[in-house]
Amino acid sequence: MAWVGLLRHGQSTGNVAREEAESDGREVIDIAERDADVPLTPLGEEQAEAAGEWLARSPVDLVVASPYRRAAETARIALAAARQQGAPVPREPVIDERLRDRELGVLDLLTTRGVRERWPDELRRKQRLGKFYYRPPGGESWADVVLRVRPLLRELHADAAGKRVLFVAHEMTVFTLRYLLEGVPEPELLRAASRTEVANGSITGWSAEPDGRYRLTEEQETVHLHATATEPTEDDDAAASLT
Question: Annotated binding residue at 70?
């Protein structure tokens, strides 16, 4: 692939509910839907439209999205906005379940306080194993996410050679792609994650180098949000920040 990008989904109702629960010191996040069905907020829809402005200036050949509603909606809104400006972009995203957000198992819907109060042994196990390899019961580790995204990249290297490909997915996916495309080692990756804010609706991109590796060229870019007077938000996804 000539270029690979990641558009993080727009702000979701789950992002807002999580921030409120953490701020209020609650143990449980109040979300009625399952994680896959959490929708965008009105602001999230605006952020997706602003991403369409970016796509209109930098068209891509293929868009592959997470099946989770917040990501799939972001992809469709962004593509529609780009097409309205005459951009040669795909009509619909390709949906691939390998781009879904990381699964948290028994820690799902728990805040940082909730994990500490209800699963202290798991917190100690995570501290011993490290964030990259820790797998909550019934859930996934960062390494598990890498293992399902790696074959997707291999398929695209063959099927989309020389093309510009945009993923529309989750905060976690940014760090997964840094690990796979740049070869960032685990310790450096976790340091980068601890200091990196991946805004809703932001674009991260990598360009192919002659040696077959990829170079980071767009780093959580939000210029298109500011250009359209759209408020950027840095609401964490639980899968990337909680564990």
Answer: yes
Say which amino acid occupies 189. Answer: L
Q: Quote the number of domains for the chain.
A: 1
- At 163, which CATH number? 3.40.50.1240
Quote the CA–CA distance of 31 and 43 in Å, as a whole number.
18
User: How far is residue 238's CA from residue 28's CA, in Å, rounded to a whole number?
Assistant: 12
Phi, psi of 104 (to 5 degrees): -100, -5
Q: What is the pLDDT along the chain (243 residues), one digit of tens a residue?
A: 999 999 999 999 999 999 999 999 999 999 999 999 999 999 999 999 999 999 999 999 999 999 999 999 999 999 999 999 999 999 999 999 999 999 999 999 999 999 999 999 999 999 999 999 999 999 999 999 999 999 999 999 999 999 999 999 999 999 999 999 999 999 999 999 999 999 999 999 999 999 889 999 999 999 999 999 999 998 877 665 555
Angle made by CA atoms 14, 98, 208, in degrees to the nearest 5: 105
Q: How far apart are CA 26 and CA 238, in angstroms?
A: 14
Q: What residue numbers bound the domain in which 41 lies?
A: 3-241
pTM attached to this predicted model: 0.95
Q: Which secondary structure element, helix H or strand E, spans residue 114, and what is its range?
A: helix 112-118
Residue pair 201/47 in contact (Cβ under 8 Å)? The answer is yes
Length of the chain: 243
